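Sample pair:
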Amino acid sequence: MKDSLHDLIATERENEMKNAVEIKGLTKKYKDFTLGELDLSIPCGFATALIGANGAGKTTLIDILSGVTARNSGETVYFGDMTDIDDGELRNRIGYCSAVNFFPPDWTLRTVAQSMELGFDNFDRKRFSELCSRFKLGDPEEKKQKKLIKLSDGNKMRTYLAAVMARDTELLILDEPASALDPLARDLLCDLFREYLSERDGERTVLFSTHNIADMEFATDYAVFMARGKVVEAGYVEDLKEKYILVHGDGETAEKARPFMLSQTGGRSGFEGIALAENADMLGAFDTAVETPTLQQLSVGILRKAEEDGEE
C-alpha cells in the first residue's frame, strides 16, 4: 500500500496536478487572535492535514474555507477558478463538517437523511444507510430512533461524517473529525478517506484539521503545520520525512547536539528531538542515533520549535 501511494504521489506531481484550494494573503482578525497573513495551497487528489495545538487557527481557517466565517482580506480560489464560496455550484462541490452541533440536537438519523436529501441534490440516501451501518449507528429508516442529543460525542461525530460523506462531492473540509472517535472508528475513517480519494482518480481532495495526528498518519499525504495563526511548515509527508530526522542519545551528548537540533526534550538519562537531515553526519559524530521520524514525532518537534520561537 505504501509503495502504491508513493507511486501515486510521484505520478501526480509529474502531471503537475492543479490545487484544490489556493489561499493568497488571507487574514482574519479578532480581539485577541489574528490568523495570517496566509499563503497556502492544498493539492488536489490528496488528504491534507492541518496540524496544530488548540488555538493555532485551524478551525478559523476551516470556517473561512467553508464559508462559515468571513475573512478580513486575501483571496481563496477553489478548483482553479472559483472564488465565491456563496456560489451554489461551489457549495454543492464541497462537503463541510464541523466538530460540534452540526445538526440540531432533536434530530434523528432519519431526520438527518430527510434534511440532507432536501438540501443537496447530490446526497445519496442509500449511501448514507451504508455508512451508518459501517459506523455501527443503526438503520436510519427504522421507526424508533434516538435523538442526537442522546448519542455519545463519538456517535454524533459518526453521524455527521456519514451525512457529509454520503454526498457526491469533490472536496471534503472537516474540522477535527477524529477527535471524538475511538481507535476503531478512526481506522475506519482513514479507510473512508482512501476510498473517497480513489473513486475519482485524483480529482477529489480531503482537508481535515487535527491536534493529534497519531491515529491519522495513514490517512495523511500532505501536512500543514500551524502555530499562533501562521503556517510554520508544509509539505508532502514523504518529503518532510526526508527533510527532517529524529535524533536521540544519552544525556552526556545532549549539549553537544543542541546547536544542531531544531527542538529536543530530555534530561540526564537521554534526549530526543528533531533536526534537519542535512545535519545527520554531524549529529552522528556525537554518537547519537538517527532515524526517520513518524508524522507524530515530526508534529511534536516542528510545533515545539514554533512555540519556542514565539516565546523569544
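The chain is about 35% helix and 25% strand.
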